[in-house]
Amino acid sequence: MAQTWQQKLNAKKEPKLQVTQKAMAGVPAGGQLFFPTPQLIKRFIDQIP
Questions:
Q1: Cβ contact 35:18 at 8 Å
Q2: For residue 24, is pLDDT > 90?
Q3: What are the b/e assignments for 23-48, b being 16+ CB within 10 Å?
Q4: Cα angle, residue 37 at apex, residues 5 and 10 outer, rounded to 5°
Q5: What pTM did the predictor assign?
Q6: pLDDT tens-digit series, residues 6-18
Q7: Alpha-carbon torsion 37, 42, 25, 33, what sign?
Q8: Do 29 and 21 form a contact (C-beta atoms < 8 A)?
C-alpha cells in the first residue's frame, strides 16, 4: 500500500552522511553528501519567519 505524505513525514529514519564513489551533483568523488530526514527539513523550514 502506498504511504501518505503524513506517514512519510513521520517515518522513523536516520539522517545519512554518504561518501560519493564518483562525481555527482557537483560533488567530486570521495566527497560527502548529507541526506537529512523529512523531520529535519520540516524543523528547518518552520524556523523561517
A1: yes
A2: no
A3: eeeeeeeeeeeeeeeeeeeeeeeeee
A4: 40
A5: 0.66
A6: 998 888 889 999 9
A7: negative
A8: yes
Distance from C-alpha of 22 to C-alpha of 7, rounded to nearest angstrom: 33
Distance from C-alpha of 49 to C-alpha of 16, rounded to nearest angstrom: 27
The mean pLDDT value of the chain amounts to 92
HEC assignment per residue over the chain? CCCCHHHHHCCCCCCEEEECCCCECCECCCCEEEECCHHHHHHHHHCCC
* pLDDT tops 90 at residue 4: yes
